């Protein structure tokens, strides 16, 4: 299931890159856990940025992450699915979180939610994780600016498994809505 989601993500990502012309591989970052860091640099979201997010979207990244995690924890999938960005060009694309995701993350316990940050992603690390991305970059050196905001979190799943990762959310759309971009 995870491999199918990764392949789908790569195909959708390639389509977005062809349509937009800007390499965006953020979602792929969250589908595979690397030994090293994907981030070449991190910058905490400032108070001014938080105020701007609050003004334009009605919520800060930390509030969005907490709301999404709370919705998953309580099994409120109607609320969680509000953060799912449906692909209108793909009629077969999922319209919300999958049943297997709901089984795994429903009823989880939130241990902590960290301070949101923006980041630059290492092209070399991206290519190492997804060799198929090599053709999308002229070089494997350098890095790219991630389009969203990352919010570190730690949760305990129903089976006792602890997950620590960074939730990726973004609001760079004409409607100024926050969407889940990976990180579970």
Can you walk through the features of this model?
By secondary structure, this protein is of the alpha+beta class. It has one domain. Helices cover 38% and strands 22% of the residues. It is globular, with a radius of gyration of 16 Å.
Give me some keywords for this one:
184 residues, 7 strands, 7 helices
Helix content: 25-40%
In the predicted model, the low-confidence regions spanning at least 5 consecutive residues are: 14-35
Radius of gyration, taken over Cα atoms and rounded to an integer in Å? 16 Å
Main sheet properties = 4 strands, antiparallel
**Count of discrete structural domains:** 1
Structural class: alpha+beta
Arithmetic mean pLDDT: 79
Give the count of helical stretches: 7
Distance between the termini: 14 Å
Q: Could you say which overall geometry the principal axes of the C-alpha atoms support? A: globular
* Count of distinct strands: 7
- The H/E string reads HHEHHHHEEHEEEE
Strand content: 15-25%
